[in-house]
Amino acid sequence: MNPGGESMQTLPLGVDYIRFLPEIVLSIFGMIVMVLDPLVDEQRSQKHLGMVALLGTLTALAATLLMSQYPGSAFWNMIQVDSFSVFFHFLVIAVAALVILSSYEYMTVQRIRAGEYYGLILFGAVGMALMSSAVELVLIFIALEISSISTYILAGFRRREAISSESSIKYFLLGSFATAFFLYGVALMFGATGSTSIWQISQVLHSRVPLLAYVATAFMFVGLGFKVASAPFHVWTPDVYEGAPAPIVGLMSTGPKAAVFAVLLRIFFQANAPGRFWLIWVSAALSMTLGNVAALVQTNIKRLLAYSSIAHAGYLLIAFAVPQTAIADTGISSAMFYTVAYAAMNVGAFAVVSHLAGAGEHRVELEDYAGLGRRSPLLAATLTIFLLSLIGIPMTGGFFAKFYVFSAALKANLVVLTIIGVINSAIGAYYYLRVIVLMYMREPREETALPRVPIGVGITLAITAITTICLGLFPGRVVNYSLRSAHELVHPEMSATDIRRPSVIR
Amino acid sequence: MVPISYYLVLSGILFGCGVVGFLIKRNIISIFMSIELMLNGVNLSFVAFAAQWHALSGQVFVFLVMVVAAAEAAVGLAIIIAVYRNRETLNVDQVNLLKL
After folding, report:
1. Per-residue pLDDT tens for A291-341?
2. pLDDT tens for each residue of B44-63
3. What are the structural domains of chain B?
4. How many CB atoms lie under 10 A from the CB of residue A14?
5. Burial of A394 per CB tally in 10 Å (0-12, 13-18, 19+)
6. Regarding predicted confidence, which is higher, A404 or A443?
7. Is the Cβ pair B64, A142 closer than 8 Å?
8. Which residues of A touch B95 (CB under 8 A)?
9. Model ipTM?
């Protein structure tokens, strides 16, 4: 890739393909879904194609297990399999599986033809998974685009509804704008260091930090900040989330976000991109404050959750402000834990929203949730778990995630940022509690019976609710795993033999 | 020989024109073309830096960027058509069902 680098092998090794297996599996299943789509009967096609797609994600999870047995780099140091990338592979593929599960009934209710929908979720998952293992900035760019382009289309999938196509065009225009900024950052980083490989960049930046590298970092952060919806690059979020199909909002507020956070962790902590502190500080403080304050006045549940997701991106970014010292491990691991906890509670919350939305997504106002506790006690109880976790009530994953981030920040002496975070958590509690109060203490607006919870949504809710509570009660295993990943990320020389010479494991 | 910095300044200007176009244009297709202009500004700086570092990789990246931009254009134009069918306008000020 660069002059004076390692000698090139002519062909990739067999083990390279194992290290890339989850992406291969997802792509193949995505293509199968697309090919089967015109062949199967339109009425029943959704269930069958959904099953194929679900099978694809489960196979990809198995492939990730196999991949985790072969740590090292593949394809001439383009991708890196370490416990960090395995962690995010599991996360994004599991999110894709849950979203597919919760979409079954939704597709029938909204009368959407299914094939491409499931195919695009799988292709999107390819991009997200690839983002977490790519250690080459141009490959990261391509992975980012694979995931983004899939979600642009998915956002407009209710294409006869004007608001859905409007959501799609806004997402597309602002998303491409952001990608161009990221790419300019990559070009400048290439100019500053002469390489786009994370390893070589970190080596160059270790000895000297050119001024251009600061500019490059800022540009890359602008691009990625758009993708994770952190302020001041958050303006698209509420509009896009309101118009897009509800299960897809569950996907795009968790999967691509987790993957982009993985990219940010690699760029900041592995490549040592300079000038991180103030960028992160300002963006985190702004995201928390703007997100929570704006959420207070929302009357639409999807917009409310959109602003809440901006606020949560802010809490998560606090963990990125820790300095590159011994504390970095804790900071990285708390960020990783937060992505998991947030994914569990948000996918669950949007599964409830998509079930209650009804045909044409007409029931998405907060008023529609009044009296839900009486009309459907189980559904209300599940949504309450997710909302309590979003507030950060003890015994839920959301609590431990926030606690872990704040304690990492305090260890790093980020007192002011932590105080802003705690105040914002208190403000945030208000609007989540408002929904809970509406559900339990208000008379229902209409007494019509709710549709039965379909099996796909039921399974999704069970898995996400149990995960949310388990993460709160027994966070130990996830924390240990993420700590180990963080250590590998910051001290790559531990496995350096493997990294420098990819042909060691044959 | 023309110094590298000339190319970099030109690429910065192209990128800046794209940003300004994105912000002031009101037609969706013009906005989309502004984004393409930004990407081409980036391409120019990739090539300039490739010449500076004597690394071929920088020139190869340009092809990758072009391919991705083409894919993006295909999807983007399809979305634009979907919007036009629903609203019969391509003026962003009139595509405003969702409050911003």
Report:
1. 999 999 999 999 999 999 999 999 999 999 988 877 889 999 999 999 999
2. 999 999 999 998 888 999 99
3. 4-87 (1.10.287.3510)
4. 8
5. exposed
6. A404
7. yes
8. 166, 169
9. 0.96
